[in-house]
Amino acid sequence: MNKNVINQQSIKQFNTNNILKLIISSDAVSRAELAKQTGLNKATVSKITDELLKDDLIEDLGYGTSSGGRKPKLLKFNPNARYVVGIDIGVSDIDFTVMNMQLETVFSESTEIAHKDHGAVSDVLGNIFNQAIEKMRTTHERIIEIAIAVPATVDNDGTILHAPNLGWKDLDLSKTLRSTFKDIPIKVFNEANAGALGELLHTDDPESQNLVYVSAGIGIGTGIVISGNLYKGKMGTAGEFGHNTIVENGIQCHCGRKGCWEMYASEQALYDSLKSRNVNIDFNMTTVLTELEKRNTKVKEIIDELSTHLNTGLENVARALNPDLIVNGNKLGHLKNYLDIDMEIQGSRVVFSKNNQHTTIEGMVSVITRKYLYQKRYSLKSL
Distances in Å between the alpha carbon of 183 and those of 67, 134, 179? Predict the structure, then answer.
C-alpha cells in the first residue's frame, strides 16, 4: 500500500479516536465544541461525526440551548450500539453477564454447574446466550466478542494449558465453543489477570498504577499490573503465586509440589480444615458466615489460621513485587470482616475488592471495548 495512503489512514484514525473520546467523556457535545477542543476544522469534524452516526456509535440529540447564536446540535455516545459477553467460569458455578460499551450490565445470569466437562459447560452457556439475545432483543452481529475467564494457566494464544480444579488440560476453548456462540470471536483470559484489569479501573491513577490482584477461590491466582499494564510474562503464565511453597514438605498440591500457598489459604483450604476438624456444616460461604456470626469458636479458629497463611503469601507477593496495591478478591473476599489481614506489607497497601461480584468481567469487557472502539473497528472496514 502507498505510504501516503497509510499516513492518511493513521491521521484519520487518530482524529476519529480523539473525537470519540471527547464524545464519550461528555454528556452531550456540539460539533463546534469538538472542533474547538481538537483544533480540527468544522468540515473534518462533520465528516467524522457523520461516520460515527452511521456506525450507530453516537446519537444525534437534536438542538441544545443557544448561548447567543445558532442553537448547537448535540451529540452523545451510544453505549448500546455494541455489547460484550463476559463469562466467569468457576469450579462450581458460572457468572454470565452482558455489558454495553460503558460497562453497564444489561443482562446477568448465574448458575451452578453439576458437570465440569467442557461439553456440558458448552450446553449451559449456549442456553444462557440464547436467553440473553432474546431478552435483550438484539442480534449476534451486535456482540463484539465473547470474553471468558477461567481459573487456569492460559498461554498468550488463549489456550488453557491447565485448569486443575476443572480437570481441563491443553484445551482451545475458543474452538470448542465456536458453534455455541455463532462464530462470534472468543477471547479466553486467566481469571486472576482479568480481575487485575477490573481492579485497575477503580484506582485513582490507572495509567501508572502497580497492583497485584489475589483471587482466592477454590485455588489462588494472582494477576500483576505494572505501570498500568497487565504483566503476563514471556509465555503468558506469570503470577502463579498460589503455587509458591509456604510450608516445607506440607500438604500435597495437585501441581505436584507440596506446601503450596493455595493449599492453606484458599476457599478449598477452608473447607478441608472444616472437614478435618469435624465441623458438621454445609461447605459454602453463606453457611460459614452464618457460623461466624453465631461465634462458632471452631470456625473462628480455622479462619484465624487461614488468615495467618494468607498473610504469609501476601508477604511473599509484597517482597517479590512491592506493588502500590495488593487487592484481595474472589470468594474469600466475603470473609473480609473476619480475616485478620495486614493492611500494609513492605510498603504495599493491602485491601479487599470493593466490587467483588463483577471485577473479573469488568476487566475483560473494558479491554475488549477499548480495543474495538480505538483499534479493531479500523481493521474491519476501509478508511
Answer: 50, 18, 6
For the chain, give the mean pLDDT. Answer: 92
User: How many Å apart are CA 202 and CA 181, to the nearest integer?
Assistant: 30
CA 377 to CA 363: how far, in whole Å? Answer: 20
The rounded distance, in Å, linking the Cα atoms of 97 and 87 is 6
Q: Specify the 3-state DSSP secondary structure of 236.
A: coil
Low-confidence ranges of the chain (pLDDT < 70): 1-6, 66-69, 356-357, 380-383
Q: Do residues 208 and 365 make contact, with C-beta atoms less than 8 angstroms apart?
A: no
Residue type at 66 in one-letter notation: S
d(CA 366, CA 62): 29
Contact indicator for 324, 210 with CB cutoff of 8 Å: yes
Alpha-carbon span 76 to 26, nearest angstrom? 7
What ranges do the domains of the chain cover? 3-77, 81-194+361-379, 203-353
Nearest Cα residue to 224 out of 202, 204, 194:
194
**How confident is the model at residue 382, as a pLDDT?**
44
- Report how far residue 267's alpha carbon sits from residue 246's, in angstroms, rounded to the nearest whole number: 17
Strand order in the sheet with 348-352: 229-231, 220-226, 211-216, 325-329, 348-352, 344-345
Interval 179-203: pLDDT, tens: 999 999 999 999 999 999 999 999 8
On the question of a common fold for 3-77 and 81-194+361-379, the answer reads no
Give CATH superfamily name and number for 203-353.
Answer: ATPase, nucleotide binding domain (3.30.420.40)
3-77 is classed CATH 3.30.70.270: no
355: its cell numbers: 466490587
d(CA 157, CA 174): 10
Q: What does the alpha-carbon distance between residue 369 and residue 373 come to, in Å, rounded to a whole number?
A: 6
Look-up of cell digits 478449598: 268
| DSSP conformation class of 186 | E
Query: 81-194+361-379, what's its fold?
Result: Nucleotidyltransferase; domain 5 (3.30.420)
**Three cell numbers at 117?**
466437562
For residues 269 and 353, give the distance between their C-alpha atoms in angstroms, rounded to a whole number: 20
Rg (CA), the chain: 24
- Geometric angle at alpha carbon 367, from 39 and 118, rounded to 5°: 160
